[in-house]
Amino acid sequence: MTKIKQLKLLNTDTFIDFLEHMQSIENFEPWELEMMAEMIQVKRIKKGEILLNLGEISNFYFANKGCMRTFYITENGSEFIRCLTMDKSFCWAIPSFLNQQASNESIEALCDSELVIISKKTLTF
Length: 125
What we know:
Layout: H1 3-9, H2 13-25, H3 30-39, E1 41-45, E2 50-52, E3 60-65, E4 68-73, E5 79-85, E6 89-91, H4 94-99, E7 106-109, E8 113-118, H5 120-123
InterPro entries: cNMP-bd_dom, cNMP-bd_dom_sf, RmlC-like_jellyroll
Domain Cyclic nucleotide-binding: 43-123
Protein name: Cyclic nucleotide-binding domain-containing protein
């Protein structure tokens, strides 16, 4: 049984929503969707929970449901919000993810959220 069929049987809506969203962007072959299903994990987080702390290495996140903010603290101590992510959107600390280096940003849930997480390790073949 394929991973996608298993996910449908388990009624894991977040996995299925993500794969359907990806399919709406590009017409992927079944084997490509199967590969994506193997790479992702689902996480549910509460309002106020920090998904990425300053200094950690970022993953690639898909906010299936919820709202996230990517922010950093300026040199004078002010908080600057770089990005707000709503339902069916992606967020990540770009340089941290691409270069696998410590992030100078944090990501926080602004409400209870359902996320799909993809690490760079799973994208490297």
